[in-house]
Amino acid sequence: MEITEVRVTLWDETRLKGFANVTFDNVFVVRGMKIINGNSGLFIAMPSRKRSNGTYQDVAHPVNREMRRMLEEKVLEAYDVELLEHSSLL
Fold it and tell me: For the segment 35-90, what is each residue's pLDDT rounded down to a tens digit?
């Protein structure tokens, strides 16, 4: 499976830094991944929905560490590019 496109929308909050939409193999899109500034740096959070008991459940997520690492790497690279492009417009 190949990540063929990552689109990032910047967000300027203390912890929430942006949203990402990721396309796989030019045929499948996962929207609403969050780019979070955590205690140990940036990471991505999968799109989720609130359950009736108040907890949250991921709508989509990687099933192994390798895929999560690859996904996070690609999204954070796209985030860095978007930051650079945005800062050059200021």
Answer: 999 999 999 999 999 999 999 999 999 999 999 999 999 999 999 999 998 887 65
What is the token pair recorded at 2? 């190949």
Full-model pTM: 0.89
Instruction: Kindly indicate whether the domain formed by 3-89 is annotated with CATH number 3.30.1120.40.
Output: yes
Q: Are 40 and 24 in contact (CB under 8 A)?
A: no
Q: Give per-residue burial for 40-79: e unless 16+ CB within 10 Å, then b.
A: eeeebebbeeeeeeeeeeeeeeeeeeeeeeebbebbbebb
Q: How far apart are CA 36 and CA 33, in angstroms?
A: 10
- Beta strands per DSSP E along 1-90: 3-10, 16-24, 28-38, 41-45, 48-50, 56-58
